[in-house]
Each structure stands twice: as structure tokens, then as C-alpha cells.
Design a protein that fits this description.
- The protein is of the alpha/beta class and about 325 residues long.
- It has one domain (about 5-250, about 280-325): TIM Barrel.
- It is about 40% helix and about 10% strand.
- It has eleven helices and nine strands.
- It has helices at about 15-25, 40-55, 70-75, 100-105, 135-145, 155-165, 190-200, 220-235, 250-260, 290-300, 305-325, and strands at about 5-10, 30-35, 60-65, 80-85, 105-110, 150, 170-175, 200-205, 240.
- Helix 8 (about 220-235) crosses helix 10 (about 290-300).
- The chain is globular and about 45 Å long.
- The two termini are about 30 Å apart.
Length: about 325
């Protein structure tokens, strides 16, 4: 059986049977899905209830993935394993004991912050970045213990470097690109990427237009060149995909993502008043059926079979094997 797994380590779609079928058409073995932006613990549980309903309604298409073995099971049974993640630590509220509870419910990734300052760390939109907080240090230690991966995708520079240093296990930046290619606020510096790789961490390269050079007009060739340059900087073994695909979401969802309940105003984030909603995806990657375009593009760009397979999914699978289980 082919070991060329396809894993997308971040999506936040408007979930439907259509999208689950497209995952199968695209031969996507696993997807890390965002189930929380600003929700508290009880609201997070309600989101898991929704997913349990999807698993019950579409058992031939998807199931709840919890460990690396589930990716292999997905391939064997022609389904997609769905892994849960948070883009904010809001579900643990101010209670470190909820870290283990969330892991027991199947959550496998948690960002320490989403754009703003949190109880744990600083987001990339804050003017000052004092780094990981006292509670943040304690929560990272607990996340390491239970097997909940630290994600710093929306975090500021010092906080991200702090988290890499503090964590006893590799961390992830599940959906971002290198700043040397496109200087978006959320894209990461060479210093961060080198530090991430030095500790065995993973970078999921994003297809979200605000993170792409030339935005929605980014070419596949340009993206593949960026993948090659990032692999040269970090080592190909530390690079994967985290598309940040927000398929079929209404523009109103962007307001919840950026604003939540922390302000009464509109935060346009990476967009502008003229482009406040979701930007159109590049034509070569519009949904889960198009992962083959990336794979073909990498091969055309000179990636050999093994390195292409690593980027398309094997690196994430190896990361799952080591980091979803409790610390020994």
C-alpha cells in the first residue's frame, strides 16, 4: 500500500456532506479542523456535539481521529480522519485542569493565542509582546504532559520563540508561511522557523490568500518555489501543509473569527474595509479535490518522490505519532 498520505493540518470550512465527499475525491486521509475560536468550555462541548452528529450521519466518509493510527485506518477504509483543534485557549478558561479534559475529548492542537493577548501569550496584532505568561508556562507543561500540541500560528514573535524554548516537546505552527516570501503579520521570521525546526517542530504552509505572495493571484509555481526555499531553511522533514481552507463560509463568519466578544467594533484583521470577507482562493486550490495539483506542482518543481510525500502528509503523520500521546 502506498505510504503517500495526504494530511491537511488546518481547515475551518462550513462543513457539509459535499465537503466530506470532496475530501474523499481528493484522497485526503486526515484533516485538522478548527472547532473553537472564542468559545468557552461549554460552547466547545456543543461544537463537539455537532461533530459527533457529522460522524453519525456520514460514517462512510469521516470519523473522529485521535491518534496517528487513525490516519492509517482512514486510508485502509477510504475515509478521512478528523482531528480537533482550538485557535484560542478560551475553552480552558482560567483552569489548567481543563487541558487534560480537552485532550480526553479528542482535542489535539491548541493555539496559545488568536491575534490578541491571552492569559497564556501574545498575539501577532498586539503592539507589545512580553512573551509567554506565567500561566502560559504552566499550561505548556501540562499540554506536554497529556499530548496536546502547542500551536503558535497567530502568535507574536517573542511569544512564539518563548513557546518553542519552554516546551519540552516539539510545537507546531499549523498554518502560516515564511515572512521572507510574503510579509503578512501572521507569517513567520527566519529566526522563528529555524528555532522551530531545531526542536523538531512542524510548519503547515498556508493557502489562505492573505498569507500568499500576490494573494488570490498567487501561482502554483510561486507557491512551490516557496515550499522549496522553506525546506532549504528548515529541512524538508519539518514542512507540511495547513491550508487554512475556509470553504463555503459566509463572510459573516470572519467577524466572529476576528472579533468574537472582545470588542464592539469591526476588526478587519488582514483584510481591509474594501475586502473584509473571505478572499477568493487561487484557482489551482479551491477545495479538497485540488491537493493533487500541489503534489504535481512539487514534483514538477524538482521534489523527488520521498520529499514530496513528506510534505504532502508523512511529516505530519510522524509528528502525530510522537506528540498526540502522553509524555513518557
Amino acid at each position: 500500500m502506498s505510504l503517500n498520505y495526504r494530511i491537511d493540518n488546518l481547515q475551518y470550512a462550513n462543513w457539509s456532506e459535499k465537503i466530506f465527499k470532496q475530501m474523499r475525491d481528493g484522497k485526503v486521509d486526515a484533516v485538522h479542523v478548527t472547532i473553537v475560536y472564542h468559545e468557552n468550555f461549554r460552547e466547545m462541548v456543543a461544537e463537539i456535539e455537532k461533530w459527533n452528529s457529522y460522524f453519525e450521519r456520514f460514517p462512510k466518509l469521516i470519523f473522529h481521529g485521535k491518534y496517528a493510527e487513525d490516519v492509517k485506518l482512514a486510508r485502509e477504509t477510504d475515509r478521512t480522519a478528523i482531528f480537533f483543534g482550538f485557535q484560542n485557549p478560551s475553552p480552558i478558561e482560567d483552569d489548567i485542569g481543563l487541558v487534560e479534559i480537552c485532550h480526553s475529548l479528542g482535542v489535539r492542537f491548541m493555539q496559545l493565542t488568536y491575534n490578541n493577548q491571552s492569559l497564556l501569550a501574545t498575539g501577532c496584532y498586539e503592539a507589545e509582546d512580553p512573551g509567554v505568561t506565567r500561566m502560559g508556562r504552566e499550561v505548556i507543561e501540562e499540554m506536554n504532559r497529556v499530548g496536546l500540541v502547542v500551536d503558535m500560528s497567530h502568535s507574536a514573535e517573542r511569544s512564539t520563540l518563548d513557546a518553542i524554548d519552554i516546551s519540552s516537546r516539539p510545537i507546531a505552527i499549523t498554518h502560516a508561511n515564511p515572512a521572507f516570501w510574503h510579509p503578512a503579520k501572521r507569517n513567520k521570521s527566519n529566526e522563528v522557523l529555524k528555532a522551530l525546526a531545531a526542536k523538531g517542530g512542524m510548519l503547515g504552509l498556508s493557502l489562505y490568500p492573505h498569507h500568499l505572495k500576490d494573494g488570490s493571484d498567487c501561482t502554483l509555481e510561486s507557491f512551490c518555489q516557496m515550499v522549496a526555499d522553506t525546506a532549504d531553511l528548515m529541512g524538508v522533514e519539518n514542512v507540511g501543509l495547513g491550508s487554512d481552507l475556509c470553504q463555503d463560509q459566509p463572510d459573516s463568519v470572519v467577524e466572529w473569527m476576528r472579533v468574537g466578544r472582545w470588542t464592539k467594533k469591526i476588526d478587519y484583521g488582514e483584510g481591509s474595509k474594501d475586502n473584509a470577507g473571505f478572499p477568493p482562493m487561487p484557482t489551482w486550490f479551491e477545495d479538497n479535490r485540488h491537493f493533487g495539483n500541489i503534489e504535481a506542482g512539487l514534483k514538477q518543481h524538482g521534489f523527488n518522490e520521498a520529499d514530496c510525500a513528506a510534505v504532502m502528509g508523512m511529516n505530519w503523520l510522524n509528528f502525530y505519532e510522537k506528540n498526540f500521546v502522553p509524555e513518557k
